[in-house]
Amino acid sequence: MFRSCLEKKTIFPRHRLSYLSRSPSRRLHPHGLHVATSLPLPLTIATPLSLPHRSAFLARIAFSLFFLVRCEQENRRGKEEEKGRERRKRSSVRVLRHPGTVSSSFLSSNKTKTRTKQSRQNQNQYQYRRGLQDHTHHRHYGDRFIPNRSTIDLDMARHLLVDARKGKENKKSPDRTLDAPELIDDYYMNLLDWSTRNILAIALKNTVYLWNASNGSSSELLTVDEENGPVTSVSWAPGGQHIAVGLNSSVVDLWDTTANQKLTTLQGGHQGRVGSLSWNNHILTTGGSDSMIVNNDVRMRSHTVQAYRGHCQEVCGLKWSNSGQHLASGGNDNLLYIWDRSMASSNPSAQWLHRFDHHKAAVKALAWCDQFQSNLLASGGGSGDRCIKFWNINTGVCLNSIDTGSQVSSLLWSKNKRELLSSHATMQNQLILWKYPSMDKIADLNGNVSRVLFTAQSPNGLTVASAGDETLMFWNVFGSPEITKPAKKTENAALFSSWTTHLR
Q: Gene3D superfamilies, per this entry (predicted)?
């Protein structure tokens, strides 16, 4: 006789079939059959089994076991085919390599090691690309400067060009640190500049010091008295021999650093301190707390040649473009002006080319992108704005705006790569390296205990000096250059030759 009981008959879903597990979750069927209870059972029928039903149930179980064996065979066959495809793809996969990452001499020095390294790279690259393809949603980090964009996986390109450099984020200390006692903590001054002869000038209260980056020597250039001091701005002439020094007494002194003597004093152009300076060949442009911008021809006795009137508060940022055609000025009135030199030459009191009022705080940080897009200007706002904005000077359009979350005190473009460095005067007091135009953050450089107010870039474009909290720090932030360009010959050595007659 058959023992009557309640049995469970299960209809297995096709896509969830597998071998009967030997795990503790399996159960012994009353009739000696093993049932895989670990699988989800979408349909369960509980009925007393008679002889016909028992036969049908056993037939169903036999069919299920046969189907499981077929599925396992198909799975094994599929895995073997997939392994074969992987081997073929590994042999033909293209390794997307950033230009200049591996030298040809290294590749030819040891063929065996190079072949092994390349095969490992191919395998890693294929596994990474396959992992990207398995995602349902793809994120594309656009960079319009990647070559052959239509044939390159953008996620892979971003990994190689950006993520591979994230080792910089772990850099917490500068390459070199120097003491800078009595460095004035004033956002509206410009007290640091690096010459084309690799000499760094820094103003510490009433004294200007020179530090030779080639040999590490330092010297004192000048000290002004309390009546004229403190020093409010410094700026090297294009030749790297002469330097302009703006003072709190509204005058500008011009010095020859080779002879260590003062050449002349520019006065009469301002009624307040001169906090910003910018050179354009023989033209020295000065910006003062009286909201005036003055062009001074250093070859002439009557040096004032043009004046720009537009700001209503102190001018704290001045920057000529590399072409010498446009001047950008930022002020404490939250305004950014673009001046055209050709308009100034025909009008002693020139009108602006563009007037931007997008910033909500003082505009001090200005940087022209002369390396790859001459009509691109970056500007940074103060603590009430915290934004970096990008402008097309030809059209007068704001291309992009990034909220950095902190006061922007200076901006520097890399001379060799499409990267932008910003310094900040609040929050973490850090330097931030950005990738342009995606504005992905590449690195955070934290080292200052107080706000970073002034930055300067070395002549080769690789090292950046930052000044704040009476400390001068040096960072090798931009790495090795991608393209070596011959240095332009300067014709500024004779700019000051005519002064000998005036000084006698």
A: YVTN repeat-like/Quinoprotein amine dehydrogenase (2.130.10.10)
Cβ atoms 189, 275 nearer than 8 A = yes
Contacts of 8 (CB under 8 A, 6+ apart): 35, 41, 44, 45, 46
CB 411 within 8 A of CB 456: no
**Domain-embedded: residue 180:** yes
CA angle 413, 419, 423 (to 5 degrees): 60
Burial class (CB in 10 A: 0-12, 13-18, 19+), 81: exposed
The count of other CB atoms within 10 Å of the CB of residue 40 is 9
Beta strands in 171-273 (DSSP E): 176-179, 192-194, 199-204, 207-212, 218-223, 231-236, 242-247, 252-256, 261-266
The overall average pLDDT reported for the chain is: 76
For residue range 212-239, list pLDDT tens digits in order: 999 999 999 999 999 999 999 999 999 9
pLDDT(348) > 90: no
Same domain flag for 154 and 181: no
State the Cα–Cα distance between residues 294 and 154, nearest whole angstrom: 48
Q: What is the largest CA-CA distance in the chain?
A: 134
In sequence order, the β-bridge partners of residue 256 are: 242, 261
The answer to the question of residue 169 being in a domain is no
Domain count, the chain: 3
Q: How many CA atoms lie within 13 A of 160 on its CB side?
A: 19
pLDDT score of 406 more than 70: yes
Instruction: Identify whether 48 is part of a domain.
Output: yes
Question: Taking Cα atoms as reference points, which of 106, 116, 100 lies closest to residue 160?
Answer: 100
Closest to 411 (Cα-Cα) out of 436, 394, 392: 436
Structure tokens at 219: 């010297």
